[in-house]
Backbone:
């Protein structure tokens, strides 16, 4: 492993920053203290900061000695926490009830800060690095909000890169793959309207409950019979609500759930078939069905050339054996996907280990993302920061 010594020497300070962020989590678009803390640190290192993109997002600007040539890239970290009650009781646990850094965004920000400090001290690269600290990744589409506020117009860049910790992957290991790496995130609500009746006289009504059951069963045929078997997709119905009494057939039933795909083409197919199946099945039962389909995040698709470049940087950092350059994609979603729709780039997983790193007083649950017992592994701080710094050096040598 070839870590950068100035970053290693700064590890304890990075750890203190990370734990301070962990103790003071803020939800999407409310990351004011977090943004203030990051901005103050960047400015202390002589890095200019532009604020107010995507409400609370900010961009630090590090110019190398050859910045006049106009080349630039972006490195992105997310800042927001989750509306979750922390189960950990160690010293840096959340001081805010019902809020927790349960996805490691505190660590992502700290790793990028470690790289920022190094780059500010070693400006022997021929270009500009934009340090993107993004709000509202957790369901708020903060990446899109920053783009809509002119991120790529105000800060022109050749490519953009992102990184996320990955529990279960060994510390010192990375995972990346060209093409789809994370899925689109979408939710739906199907409202079935029939005609209520007494449960003893069902023939006098049009039962929305049985109609909803038939729709629920039929929707699974989209995955098994309409899309190509080699195209991955998940259609999960997670809620069915109807009625309040045992002897009354209600007027209405509601189904809710999620759809995940690795391509927009498959997503288009699923949405169209869902609407057709719901509407025509309802009609067959003398009912009606209204489908509200909401597209949240698109698939996260890594660009091949940038992914190959990242894999080479990783191999030079940790060795061939510690880089899975064809890591299995996940049906989880990430709004960095919006940035990759606008610019070439790549997203990478950094192993967070199996949870044994957690301080005494951690919760009894697993060290898994979005779990109340989670904590970021501080051993990753110099590793992630070194990766960012080496990526910058190698990029501007191209």
Residues:
């Amino acid at each position: 492993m070839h870590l950068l010594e100035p970053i290693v020497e700064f590890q304890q300070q990075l750890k203190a920053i990370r734990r301070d962020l962990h103790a003071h989590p803020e939800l999407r678009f409310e990351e004011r203290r977090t943004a203030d803390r990051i901005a103050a640190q960047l400015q202390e290192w002589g890095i200019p900061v532009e604020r107010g993109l995507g409400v609370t997002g900010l961009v630090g600007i590090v110019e190398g000695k050859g910045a006049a040539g106009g080349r630039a890239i972006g490195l992105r970290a997310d800042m927001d926490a989750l509306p979750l009650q922390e189960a950990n009781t160690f010293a840096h646990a959340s001081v805010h009830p019902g809020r927790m850094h349960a996805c490691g965004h505190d660590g992502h920000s700290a790793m990028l800060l470690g790289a920022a400090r190094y780059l500010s001290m070693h400006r022997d690269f021929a270009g500009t690095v934009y340090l993107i600290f993004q709000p509202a990744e957790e369901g708020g589409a903060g990446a899109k909000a920053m783009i809509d506020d002119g991120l790529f117009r105000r800060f022109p860049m050749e490519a953009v890169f992102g990184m996320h910790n990955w529990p279960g992957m060994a510390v010192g290991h990375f995972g990346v793959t060209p093409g789809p790496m994370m899925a689109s995130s979408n939710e739906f609500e199907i409202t079935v309207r029939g005609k209520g009746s007494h449960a003893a006289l069902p023939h006098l009504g049009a039962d929305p409950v049985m109609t909803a059951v038939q729709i629920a069963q039929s929707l699974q045929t989209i995955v098994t019979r309409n899309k190509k078997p080699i195209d991955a997709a998940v259609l999960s119905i997670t809620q069915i609500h109807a009625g309040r009494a045992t002897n009354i057939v209600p007027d209405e039933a509601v189904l809710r759930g999620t759809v995940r795909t690795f391509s927009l083409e498959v997503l288009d197919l699923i949405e169209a078939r869902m609407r057709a199946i719901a509407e025509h099945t309802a009609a067959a039962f003398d009912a009606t069905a209204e489908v509200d389909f909401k597209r949240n995040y698109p698939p996260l698709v890594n660009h091949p050339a940038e992914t190959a470049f990242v894999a080479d940087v990783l191999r030079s950092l940790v060795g061939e054996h510690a880089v899975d350059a064809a890591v299995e994609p996940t049906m989880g979603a990430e709004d960095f996907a919006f940035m990759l729709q606008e610019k070439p780039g790549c997203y990478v997983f950094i192993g967070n280990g199996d949870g044994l790193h957690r301080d005494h007083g951690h919760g009894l649950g697993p060290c898994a993302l979005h779990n109340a017992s989670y904590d970021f592994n501080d051993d990753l701080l110099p590793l992630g920061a070194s990766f960012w710094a080496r990526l910058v050096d190698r990029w501007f040598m191209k």
About this structure: The chain has two domains: 5-183+299-395, 185-297. Residues 264-284 form the longest helix (21 residues). Residues 5-183+299-395 form a domain with the Aminopeptidase fold (CATH 3.40.630.10). The chain is about 35% helix and 25% strand.
